[in-house]
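anyone seen this seq b4? input:
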Amino acid sequence: MRMTTTTLPRRTALYDLHKEAGGRMVDFHGWELPVQYSSVMQEHHAVRRACGIFDVSHMGQVEVKGPDAIAFMQKVSSNDAARLKDGDAMYAHILNEKGGVVDDIIYSRLGAQHVFIVVNAATVAKDYAWLLEHAEGMNVTLENRSEHFGMVALQGPKAERLLSDIAPEAAKLKRFGALPLQLYNRDSLITRTGYTGEDGFELIVPNETVPRVWETLVAEGASYGLVPCGLGARDTLRLEAGYLLYGSDVDDDHTPYEAGYGWVVKLAKPSFIGREPLERQKKEGLKRKLLGVKLLERGVPRSGAPVLVGEERLGTLTSATFSPTLQAGIGVGYLSKPDLAPGTKVSVELHGRRMAAEISAVPFYKSPSLTK
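predicted toks r here
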């Protein structure tokens, strides 16, 4: 008899609380997580108008310590780690030798010899192996802390007011600030970051503390309009904000310039992995670029849908959804005419039918809470 084994999805420390709250669970990159509680639309609007809470404990964490910690980050990431002061966080890309994106990360400088990196769930093993390989010869030690920490994202224009009731010192953080602190007597980290295009915070705490953090925020947040949110709203929110989904919108074969994220590449800093091909690409120009597309008629675009100008196929959408905020179908995709201006008329093929659309500026939506 032929035996087969099935790998069960992993569960975060909040699994039981999700089930009790009516979360509809799905397998997401090997993790059993809620896709929604009430509805994607309701959860989306709650984050845009008040605040929402997300379980992002599937994300990974790597700590870098040692005299070369900052120099190491300069070597392996595209952004300029030398600009950081203690208590600063930064978005960056880890690049390969071709200039492709190994992962997009946020890292925090917690000291001259201490950097804390948050990596994507699906790339934890890949990222850690890559970082270890390129740490050889440098005076640093790396530790994969992904099994130790859980993460809760508190997002929305009322997030600061809610957090001030629980961790007032963290509520005072500037955007992309990072604060190590004792939360319920355990070493924790709170950053003013997120993946929704709204103001907000990410609480990185030991797994045994995560349920208490979640329950406290849910209880205290009721008066602020807080609702628990799932992966569905997380995706609609991040796409409206123009944030990349690793593995769909960017990967090892696409560069930051092609993804429209050239601002994370600092060519003026000392040499870093992937610098030379990026210098060439910037000089020679792009042959493809991730551009925004917005439907001009009612419909829900999907990833893989072709984008055309006339009869010419330009590419396909890598991410797409119906935007609850804009009440329109939106998507992004790598198109072979990188200079197409916003407003240029195109079509998107859905279920064999071509739907009227136009090139759109990205982000599709900018929150007033981040433009103050």
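The chain is about 20% helix and 35% strand. The first helix runs from residue 15 to 20. kinda curious what u guys think
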